[in-house]
Amino acid sequence: MSQLRPNAKVCSILQEKSRRVVDTATFVPATASLASIEASCGDKSVVGLDTEFVRERTFYPRPGLIQIYDGDQISLIDPIGRDTDNELSRLMADQSIIKVFHSVGEDLEIMQLVCGEVPRPLFDTQIAAAMLGFPLQYRYETLVEDCFAVTLPGGQARSDWCQRPLTRGLLQYAASDVAWLIELQDLFKEALERADRSDWLREDCQRLVDQAESGDDRLPLLRVKGGGQLNEAGLGWLNLLSAWRESETRARDLPRSFVLKDDQLIRIAEQAAQGMGLAALEQMHPRDRQRHGGALDALITESSPDPIARPTELQRLEPAQRSRLKSAQTRVRVLAEKLEVDPALIASKKELTRLLFGERPEWADGWRQQLLPEILGTS
Predict the structure, then answer these.
(1) CA neighbours closer than 13 Å in the CB half-sphere of residue 299
(2) The three-state (H, E, C) secondary structure of 130-173, written as one string
(3) What letters, b where the CB count within 10 A reaches 16 and e where it falls short, cover 181-219?
(4) Burial 265-282 (b: 16+ CB within 10 A, else e)
(5) What is residue 53's predicted lDDT score, i.e. its pLDDT?
């Protein structure tokens, strides 16, 4: 939506300001107080935030940096070793200050780890952009280029943000990640109000915050790729085994696949459902058998899980159901064209499948509720 872009003179002024705040960004060591940052942000109605982290060989993300932009100054906060009872807790909970992120995702988990709070109220510029006609998965750098005609540095997201010291290049990259968030929020806030879609964004952002606070309450077996091939008895065993793995991954802070891979869990569950679980353990790699054999022996010997009815996510669609799903996807595309938004913003394939099976996704009581008759073909 090129009509959102300010004129060339305004863009030039904003570009100069962005260069200045990035060049003067301040690194705040873990030993330093955050009182001055809390005070400066406390005078503002909007702040931009981002996080950098590492999550390659651990279950929990390892926070590496917290970036905060108050409109005048960018602070790059070192969270490593910092106590979670800090000034950021009050800032994140302050309802008078809008917290702007782009594609908030794991940022909510990072903020909970760093300060024990999730940011509220939240304004996600990726979702806001999608409600104004941009693709749903639009990158921050691309959005800034489209809206303000400026090219940002990229390619550093997978760097080791837990290394110390961080290079000047990494710090500047991190600073640029928040330098345009407030400008994007200003631009999108006005456009959403004109389009009468401000409530859409508030609802979707609040839902993200609520989900982050409530945690992941899905059946453990739904975290195992390929589990749908099992029968109901096998799913009962898979749920038991995947719950054990989940406990292990959290206790040892390891990725799930570092404990046991999905295909191993499925193989053990399938054979356990046939009364051959202990034989399945004998087929494990000697290293895995040595590490987990005792625990899995006891689990299989002492357990007799009930079969689990196939969850909607694992349902095998009949031809008639596949046809209904395809028709619903077509109706969503037509509706999206009319609203000038990405179809995925309205409903994903997974969400449409839940609707067709009679379930009601969390979003069905929000702004999408008025669209349900058209989505389901009942209007």
Answers:
(1) 20
(2) HCCCCCCCCCHHHHHHHHHCCCCCCCCCCCCCCCCCCCHHHHHH
(3) bbbbbebbbebbeeeebbebbbebbeebbeebeeeeeeb
(4) bbebbbbbbeeebeebbe
(5) 96
Its pTM stands at: 0.93
φ, ψ for residue 31 (rounded to 5)?
-85, -10
Are residues 281 and 194 in contact, defined by beta-carbon separation less than 8 angstroms?
A: no
Q: What is each CA distance from 145 to 15, 123, 137, 150, 293, in whole angstroms?
A: 11, 20, 15, 5, 54
Task: Measure the CA–CA gap between 127 and 201, rounded to whole angstroms.
Answer: 7
User: Model confidence over 206-239: pLDDT tens digits?
Assistant: 999 999 998 888 899 999 999 999 999 999 999 9
CA distance 206 to 225: 29
Asked if 125 and 188 count as a contact pair (C-beta separation under 8 A), the reply is yes
Would the pLDDT of 2 be above 50?
Answer: no
Mean pLDDT along residues 268-286: 94
With beta carbons less than 8 A apart as the criterion, state whether 118 and 93 touch.
no
CATH class of 220-302: mainly alpha
Residue 136 CB neighbours (<10 A): 17
Q: Cis bond leading into 255, ω under 30°?
A: no
Query: 378 by DSSP, 3-state: which?
Result: coil
Q: What are phi and psi of 150, to 5 degrees?
A: -135, 140
What DSSP designation does 72 have?
Answer: S
Token pair of 112 as six digits: 């909970």
CA–CA gap between residue 44 and residue 30 (Å, rounded): 24
CA atoms of 95 and 74, how far apart (whole Å): 21
The string of DSSP codes covering 223-286 is GSTTGGGS-HHHHHHHHHHHHHHHHHHHHHT--HHHH--HHHHHHHHHHHTTT-HHHHHHTS-H
Q: Looking at residue 379, what is its pLDDT?
A: 66
CB 74 within 8 A of CB 179: yes
Phi, psi of 28 (to 5 degrees): -110, 105
Q: Is pLDDT of 376 > 80?
A: yes
Among candidate residues 106, 107, 90, 116, the one with its CA nearest the CA of residue 50: 107
How far is CA 248 from each of CA 61, 221, 295, 303, rounded to the nearest angstrom?
A: 16, 15, 10, 18
* CA 357 to centroid of chain Cα atoms: 26
**Topology of domain 2-214, per CATH?**
Nucleotidyltransferase; domain 5 (3.30.420)
Q: Kindly state the DSSP code that residue 318 receives in the 8-state scheme.
A: P
